[in-house]
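[job 4471] stage=fold_predict status=RUNNING
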Amino acid sequence: MLQNLHVKNLALIDEVEITFHEHLNILTGETGAGKSILIGSIESALGKKVSKDMIRPGAKEAVIELLFWIDDPNVIKEIEQFDLTVEEGQVFIRRVITEKRSVNKINDCMVTLHTLREVSSRLFDLHGQQEHQTLLKEKNHLKMLDHFLSEQDQELLKQCRLYERRYRDIGVKIDSLMMDDRQRLREIGFLEHEIHEIKEAALRLGEDEQLEKDYRKMLHSKEIAASCSIVDRLTGYEEDTAIGNQLTESMHRLQEVSHLDSTVQEFYDQLLEIEDLLGSLHQEISNYMEEIEFNPQMFTEIEERLNLINGLKGKYGNTIEKIISYQEESKQRLDVLKNAENEAKHFEEEQKLIEGEYRKVACSLSVSRKKIAVKLEKQITKALEDLNFLSVVFKIDIAKEKQMTPDGEDRVCFMISTNPGLPIRPIQDVASGGELSRIMLALKSVLADVDHVGSLIFDEIDTGISGETANRVAKKMAWISRKHQVIAITHLPQIAAMADAHYSIEKQTKDQKTTTQIRELKEQESLEEISRMISGNERTETSIENAKEMKSLANDAKLY
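[job 4471] inference complete, writing structure tokens
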């Protein structure tokens, strides 16, 4: 449930903080007091795009914070799948909106707008005028029906989607084969040329690295040879100043006195080792200089080979491994094109097998949907009667789709007749605005027993209703609030009287500054607000008594 809402610098709201309660929370106020802004702030915190114009003039940023408490382990598990930690069942959503961007956090972790919406959908269900309109689109009726599928049936739905996607993917492969002969021959010729070009290159793994090493060595051979020549002279014996001669002279000097002191003998032994190392180094440098002689023909061959390999890299991949992999893929594609008819037949046979499996699963899913539909028809009809639909007939029509769809082979349409003698017709062809809101409320009341979402918000649920219908709607909302937290904005005293927690939204002007304020009403204040809703600003003893009676009847009607 939603425990707390904090809004700062959003439109007419300077700063408000509200603590919500279990069961039915009702918000009331004069037209234009800012009720829609409050709902808008909740929607914004749950991921709705917000215009920078909504930031209160003079403020740098708007802040919206929601604190939820969850006791359903399944919902907690779903939220934690987004790499979020839920401690002690609390989820804290914070959204900061600036002129340039918005920052979204859940439990102090930065999240994307997509993640915010996904998590929010598991916490809150907002039922407003826009949602009423979803009933007018037949494609939404199937989704509503599928809310009532069991876990086993949900698995059938997943299988349908998997089979349909595989069927579609194979269809794309078949379409790629079903090109005209001229186009196919062109692609065959192009592939043969590419395969031949790579084959002729006779590439070897790792050869490009060795070639580049040799090329770099030969390119700088003169510089290397010059330096090595100097070192060769310095480490040899040809010149008096060479290290070799100096070392030999040093050894003669020590050898003459080595028999007089053991330490001097050790120095002499070390010089012997150094002479051996220096001799080996001098010989290796001499051998290296013989090999490093610049060979123009070899240099040209290496350069041409590197140019060939780099040209192939530019066409087929930036490594020899990728070029060879491209060649293999091209061979496979060439085989497919040369055997297009056989390949197409193979894919078509595979499609038939997949379609057969799809039809089996879709048929089982359809059977389950029809069973659920029969049960729902009764439950929704009863809920509609509770909402003052007299002699209502509600049916769920399930027809078979001709084409495979991700959701199975069913096309669902909600049908209704709201008056005796009138034929049953699709909801979108019959229902008025006020009827749509009540039909959706009926659906929500039936869905309440299977829905894991803890909090529901109803905006403008009282559109186009009054009198006894208003009493019925109030009772139905109270019924839903048995197992769910409900937050509702209303203009009707009958619904306000049903509140377990009543809040007043007011617009105040001070120092030429207009703000929206909200506060929780005490029992007497709630009666006075209901009285205002009954008779307007001129409260009378009669309206107060009517408010008390409404409140008493509402309390008696509650089932919790």
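[job 4471] summary: The mean pLDDT is 86.
[job 4471] exit 0
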